[in-house]
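Structure ticket #2291
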Amino acid sequence: MNFQNLFEKLGLENARWQWRARRWDQAVERWRGNLRGERQRVVYRNKFCPQCRTLMDRDDKVCPNCGARVGSWHVQAAGRAVASFIPGGSTVTGTLIFVNVLIFGLGILFGGLGAIFSPPNIFIKLMSMISPAFLQGQYWRIITYGYLHFGWMHILFNMFALKFSGDLLEEEVGKARFFVVYTLCMLGGGVFNICAAKMNIQYMAGASGAVFGLIGFGAAYGHFLGGPRGEALRNFFLRWVIYALIFTFLVPGISVSAHLGGLTTGGLLGYLIENERRGRARQERIWRLANRICLSASVGAFLWMLVYLFSHTT
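Resolution: structure written out below.
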């Protein structure tokens, strides 16, 4: 489309309209250029090792640098295509933020503008952690609770903390380990909450258990790593630990058990992952498997929840 020609045909030939048409044509051309660049990025017929980021020939099955097995370049191209439509989708942190915001947006879609301050009742009853319901067999809650937030301030704080800590840690330990740590910390927060309040019918939700876990993980990982880089990581996350604990104990209505559970789980994982650093290449297959298990469990939890919903509404 050429706006200058279109405006001339409509009789809009004065300088003001022609200047506006030219500006719009330039904007369209820039958009087309960006789109061409994105298409080139998606269909690029080489591939990267997901572990060490070595550029490989598309037909190689094993990375020549670290020895890790690498899937088809078609799979990587499909992943890049999907990621190009998801803000921050090229990182696990960005994808987690996207999923949390998406669920928050769905709450507004189904519950109206009031969901900005509190999610719809159906979301709360199905996704949040309620200890008695979990103990009666609704096990999906131990994952879904981490993706539900009670209002815009709740999700804003958690996503800010996730972005701040997630980008740094994901770059440090890699995508597979990072997602496993995030998921296990979320599970740890849920388990602590269940143990602390077996008969408590209060609804508990939010990514803060997992985020606290990342903070604890970063502090422990940096401490055991040692050296200037380790000390910098430790000191950075220790400050966050102090802020987070003050916030936990001063603000009413917060699940202290979930926060402490995530923090403890993250600290233990920080020790574990730093200590396997020297043999990291040999452990890649185990972490990739653990990553797939955590991803399957996360998707499965939401599918289980939906099956339960439809089976009890028909």
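Closing remark: Confidence is low (pLDDT under 50) at residues 37-43.
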